[in-house]
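Researcher: Last one for today. Full complex below.
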Amino acid sequence: MTASHSPFARKLGAFVALSDRELIALDGLHTRRKVFPSGRDMIHEGQTNHSAYIVASGWASSYKILSDGSRQIVDFQIPGDFLGLRSVLCRTADHNIEPVTTLEASEVLASDLLDTFTDMPRVATAVLWAASRDEAMVVEHLVGVGRRDAKVRIVHFLLELKSRLKLVGMATSAGYDCPLSQNLVADALGLSTVHVNRVLRELREDGLLTFRHGHVEIHDLDGLIAMSNFDRTYLDEEGPMLI
Amino acid sequence: MTASHSPFARKLGAFVALSDRELIALDGLHTRRKVFPSGRDMIHEGQTNHSAYIVASGWASSYKILSDGSRQIVDFQIPGDFLGLRSVLCRTADHNIEPVTTLEASEVLASDLLDTFTDMPRVATAVLWAASRDEAMVVEHLVGVGRRDAKVRIVHFLLELKSRLKLVGMATSAGYDCPLSQNLVADALGLSTVHVNRVLRELREDGLLTFRHGHVEIHDLDGLIAMSNFDRTYLDEEGPMLI
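Model: Here's the assembly. Have a good evening.
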């Protein structure tokens, strides 16, 4: 697989129709490939002088630990996503990043990004779009934790993952592989593991979806969209805006 | 006041030491100045083909209305901030924006941004930094609503505003003008207005701060930072990273 067909290129290609020259520039961001084991922090809060990464394969979680020891998972990262971009730009990491599975990622220095933007301003716009989309997801996450009930929150979360994975060719409308434990889902959504377990059983009994053994199977997409009021426009899936 | 001394230039200047040429390019983003009255949406959720704006003076709030009619304020915008940048890049507005006071702002089209990035790649990096900082604030906001008690949440919020306003020359360590009603603060922090009122009275009686008549007066900054565990590194105030 060349970088021009990488999940990152597929994702940016959803916003900017990339030229051959731009695809080659993206190749240049994929030279320093590293592998990280699951369950050990790659980046920790307060760290400075670290790199950003683009995920090639595997899943990661970003989270914060509060002074009372409680954990808030901010988001999960999948192939094509940046890890730690915000922290590189803001110098000091404001959160921890831990691989959920074995993770393969390309190291990107702030100077690489600046060089790429200098050569390819359309790539800068595409990266800004990707960052804006990440912010839109955190906003939805805030609204979920602040205002949505547990069932709607879980369905919204699983539909959002489906849309994100579909963009990089890792999901269909029928479902997707998902390595997240119920414990991780609970800590992302501000719920208890018992509560997540009960809601997933209800969704299965209602014939809406089954999340079991690392796989989400969608039985009734329209039903899920209707009950969660899921509006995927914030994920912006209508094809390239910049031609 | 020229744009080169605009709040926007001051803010980007915190990340990139801007050259004269870059300051002139920022001037180019300030040609279409508009005034919006308070209390009426400038941008509403689901709207397409709208512009983004850079705030010159005044305050705005961005918020979402849920299907049950409840409101979640996502953030407030102050001079130097973008309004609706994410929505322009993602085509469809995913939230509403309403001026809190009379608001003066410069209209910015997506094509203006792309043109500026093409001429000035360092400006692209600075705008990406500003977007990343906004995301960091939404993350803190998520952590606050998910995990912090009411008093810590309110103090954190008021200290964050102080840091943001200071960056654009509108606050000192002694305090700042703040046009937000207790009702707006409550809807941003997921609290009741009665609760916000009670906490503000406690903070005043404890000799920590007074928020009254549109002004926040800080009596004991160290005490506030200690009790809220406020860590301003996520606001990245150490001076330009790109020289």
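Chain A has a mean pLDDT of 85. The radius of gyration of chain A is 18 Å.
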